[in-house]
């Protein structure tokens, strides 16, 4: 199975790219969605977050107050580190579960839309690593517009991630989303051709048929050698 890592900075356009790929029939695992489920009331993640931030972080209905938590962690690196340590193991497990479901179904290509792919060192598990890049001024403008936030709030969020230029340096494929949507769609089409190319031997070996074949061969070998 081919796991394509799709990452970038906040509001650089990851969802725009993944939505387009999904509309063309490619399955997408969205880490922001997985992270939300991982923090639902009374889950393991919720308990870990409440253990760190206290019950004061909850709304009246018992769910985590995301706006308040965001205000805290995007303005305080130490608190952000605490949240990351509490919730990221739960996110990783959630992502693993999503990948496993696709693996069982025999899906050939899965787009892993993970904002913190490189920060969480998951880039080593995906190939190719695709970085959706924008210039800083465009990123700030799009983020303030989308979230209806101030420039200070937008900058705090942008600066809480690895600089986008560094992510671009670590990419196997870069989508420059600073221009028009049409421009980006052309780049997505080229990416689609690349990632839907026939599987490599390594990918075949890790497919469910590959693993079944290797296990069968191993069992046969062990039985012969006895
Ligand atoms: C702090 C929270 C509650 C704020 O929620 P909110 O609904 O306002 O934002 P949302 O979840 O939609 O995230 C928006 C974007 O913020 C960025 N972001 C989220 N968490 C982090 C983080 N810990 N560090 C840096 N950037 C982050 C991502 O680019 C993400 O796409 C939420 O982002 C969260 O639970 N973060 C921790 C989980 C996490 O690491 N998520 C990223 C998935 S890999
Ligand atoms: N090429 C483009 N031209 C104009 N607007 C764009 C373009 N690409 C994305 N946008 C807009 O910029 C905003 C951010 O895009 P998007 O939500 O896809 O980013 P993201 O990287 O998924 O963000 P997040 O990290 O918060 O999940 C959205 O409002 C989107 O409509």
TrEMBL record:
SUPFAM superfamilies: P-loop containing nucleoside triphosphate hydrolases
Gene Ontology, cellular component aspect: cytoplasm
InterPro entries referenced in this protein's UniProt entry, alphabetically: Depp_CoAkinase (IPR001977), P-loop_NTPase (IPR027417)
Keywords: ATP-binding, Membrane, Nucleotide-binding, Transmembrane, Transmembrane helix
One Pfam family cited in the UniProt record for this chain: CoaE
BP-aspect Gene Ontology terms: coenzyme A biosynthetic process
Pathway this chain belongs to: Cofactor biosynthesis; coenzyme A biosynthesis; CoA from (R)-pantothenate: step 5/5
Record GO terms (molecular function): ATP binding; dephospho-CoA kinase activity
EC number of the protein: 2.7.1.24
UniProt keyword Manganese present: no
Membrane-spanning segments: 205-223
Protein purpose: Catalyzes the phosphorylation of the 3'-hydroxyl group of dephosphocoenzyme A to form coenzyme A.
HAMAP family in the cross-refs: Dephospho_CoA_kinase
Family the entry assigns: Belongs to the CoaE family.
Protein name (Swiss-Prot/TrEMBL): Dephospho-CoA kinase
Species: Ceratodon purpureus
